[in-house]
Write a structure and sequence with these properties.
Radius of gyration of chain A: 22 Å
Helix content of chain A: 55-70%
Strand order of the largest sheet of chain A: 1-2
Order of helices and strands of chain A: HHHEEEEHHHHHHHHHHHEEHHH
Largest interface: A-B, 17 and 9 residues
Distance between the termini of chain B: 9 Å
Shape of chain A: globular
Radius of gyration of chain B: 17 Å
Largest sheet of chain B: 4 strands, antiparallel
Order of helices and strands of chain B: EHEEEEHE
Number of strands of chain A: 6
Number of strands of chain B: 6
Number of helices of chain A: 17
Number of helices of chain B: 2
Oligomer: heterodimer
Helix content of chain B: 10-25%
Strand order of the largest sheet of chain B: 2-5-1-6
């Protein structure tokens, strides 16, 4: 037994290093080398390598140091708080929300899978993920100019590189942007845990996460969110050229304020594929899998709601009007979704449940995520209400149709909610329906509205690309893990519970 | 001596205890138990999954009593635990061969 697990650990480590080397490989080493080379001479113009233009990083500390924009302290303070709030969404909020839903013998395994996935993704994000997602590369992937956080902090003169926001001349320290985005990458991976909870090997979870994060999260984030930043749009003549440096889905004009595609649909599809490939839990459909603590689930859902203000309003990247719009929409849409779910349950099943209310809150939060800064006030209420009902169907009717044991309904809530939100963002963005519209010309900053049908079509394309990309990567990643270390624990271990068999401890002592 | 074992609804425990004290029962043992009888379980619904809960929570009260008061004990439990609805529980009476008070070594009736 010990031998087996040692071999497994070695294998795990080797795969992990392999994946790292594959991606960080050449470029990262080159970066490290050039950084060392440059160090002695680099007194004035260190900072960003010429090709950097990172995560929409403007100018950095380089050349025009005199005219370089200085971050606003209010913006920095706001984004620091938001980043911490989003950390809270994963640990403990999501961990508790999920943990309460499993049987008590698997409580710690869920907490551990979320906790350690979170930690691992944060490290991978610092090593290469951020660079892969938020530096200039091609339409699908970024480059390695920020691998190992290169060029973001200059210890010699204490300077920090800057990242662009959505306003001309407004910047944030790029490391803060990296940290904020790290929390997104981490929670996205943690969300997947819910789909295969209560039966997957801990080592298999981590290897899968590393693979999926690298090949699905980073490119989708790049496609949807990477763009050169508003300051790079200097004249109408070069605007098209500048825009062409952005990610593919961003170039299409898809609206995803805080991660409907990147976070929720992405994770949900990976989860659903996992539920199929890992297989059903032993006893599924025959034994009662009752949640062991809906109290903790409620605590988790409520903490998620609070943390989500950092997630959504923080995605404005500034402490300004856009953040306020995202904030109130996150507030109201979620409340509407709770009411919708409870109403739906009362009408269909006769009783409104605590689990329903908590699920409704998460459904509303998911759906308003892409929409929060992109729709109007009444639009947000509609998004929330529709999402509440849609996700109720997602965890009942749709779940029966799909036939997978998606343990904690990752697809039913995050997939259905994410798709609902992404499409309705296309509907309610227009100023005709009280939405804020969108910037149609980044050179002048002019705002206008696209025709609803056009915008919905763009949103749908973004959703479809995410589904296919995430699904294919997830499928391959699960298969690789299955062939090397195996996806599932033994049936005996599963019956005894993963807390004891995977982690050697027990959640509750009576 | 008799051992009286009563299975009652959990919320009736305090009333039963008071009734037993009143008629001079010196001590009882209480256990939280689950089981089924004619009262059927209920269904619980968690999102799409519906589960039938067969075993309902009850309280088991055990009292070792003298033959002289056994009828009054049974009546007291009946009166205190009755709601008239299905699921009120049962009283079992069995004979008890020996009782020992550990502290003093007393046996039989003296130990009750």
């Amino acid at each position: 037994m010990n031998l087996v697990s040692t071999t497994m650990n070695k294998l795990l480590f080797a795969i992990f290093l392999g994946a790292l080397a594959l991606f960080a490989g050449g470029d990262a080493l080159a970066q490290a080398a050039s950084a060392t080379d440059a160090a002695p001479a680099a007194t004035t113009a260190t900072a960003a390598p010429p090709t950097a233009a990172p995560g929409a990083a403007v100018a950095a500390v380089a050349a025009a140091a005199a005219s370089a924009p200085v971050p606003n302290k209010g913006d920095v303070a706001w984004m620091l708080v938001c980043t911490a709030l989003v950390i809270m969404m994963s640990i403990p909020a999501l961990a508790l929300f999920y943990g309460g839903l499993v049987r008590s013998k698997n409580m710690l395994s869920v907490l551990m899978q979320v906790f350690v996935t979170f930690s691992m993704i944060v490290v991978l994000w610092c090593l290469y993920g951020y660079s892969l997602a938020f530096t200039e590369g091609n339409k699908f992937f970024g480059g390695f100019s920020r691998a190992f956080m290169d060029g973001m902090f200059n210890a010699k003169d204490g300077s920090f590189s800057m990242a662009a926001t959505f306003s001309k001349g407004v910047v944030l320290p790029e490391l803060l942007y990296l940290a904020f985005q790290a929390t997104f990458a981490a929670i996205t991976c943690c969300l997947i845990v819910g789909a295969f909870a209560e039966r997957m090997k801990f080592s298999a979870v981590l290897v899968f996460m590393a693979l999926w994060f690298t090949f699905a999260y980073c490119p989708i984030a790049h496609m949807v969110w990477y763009w050169p930043g508003p300051d790079e749009f200097k004249s109408a003549a070069t605007a098209a050229e500048t825009a062409a440096r952005g990610g593919m889905i961003w170039q299409w004009g898809a609206l995803d304020f805080a991660g409907g595609t990147v976070v929720h649909i992405n994770a949900a599809v990976a989860g659903l594929v996992g539920a199929y490939l890992v297989g059903k839990r032993v006893g599924y459909g025959r034994e009662a899998f009752t949640p062991h603590s809906l109290t903790l689930t409620m605590v988790g859902a409520a903490l998620l709601w609070v943390g989500w203000f950092g997630f959504n309003a923080g995605s404005a990247l500034e402490a300004g009007n856009s953040a306020v719009l995202a904030f109130i929409n996150t507030f109201s849409a979620t409340a509407a979704a709770v009411l919708a779910w409870c109403l739906g349950e009362s009408l269909l099943k006769g009783k409104a449940s605590m689990l329903g209310a908590a699920s409704g809150a998460v459904a509303g939060l998911v759906a308003i995520t892409p929409a929060c800064g992109n729709v109007g006030l009444l639009g947000a209420l509609v998004v929330g209400f529709v999402a509440g009902l849609a996700c109720l169907w997602g965890v009942t009717g749709l779940k029966r149709l799909l036939g997978a044991d998606d343990s904690l309904d990752v697809f039913g809530v995050h997939g259905v909610g994410g798709i609902t939100g992404a499409l309705l963002t296309g509907v309610f963005n227009t100023q005709l329906l009280g939405g804020p519209g969108q910037v149609t010309d980044w050179v002048t900053g002019a705002v206008g509205s696209a025709a609803i049908i056009d915008q919905v079509w763009i949103q749908l394309k973004a959703v479809l690309v995410t589904i296919v990309w995430s699904g294919v990567v997830a499928f391959v990643a699960y298969k690789l893990v299955d062939m090397t270390i195996g996806l599932r624990v033994s049936e005996e271990d599963e019956r005894e519970g993963l807390d004891i068999t995977s982690h050697g401890e027990t959640a509750y002592h009576n | 001596m008799k051992m009286v074992t009563a299975i009652v609804k959990p919320f009736k425990l305090d009333e039963v205890r008071e009734a037993l004290s009143t008629i001079g029962v010196q001590g009882v043992t209480v256990t939280e138990v689950k089981g089924f009888g004619r009262q059927k379980g209920h269904t619980e619904l968690y999102r799409g999954a519906e589960y039938v809960v067969d075993f309902l929570p009850k309280v088991k009260i055990e009292a070792a009593v003298d033959d002289a008061i056994v009828e009054r004990v049974i009546e007291a439990i009946e009166a205190a635990a009755r709601t008239g609805k299905i699921g009120d529980g049962k009283v079992f009476v069995s004979s008890l061969e020996q009782v020992v008070r550990i502290r003093t070594g007393e046996t039989g009736k003296e130990a009750l």
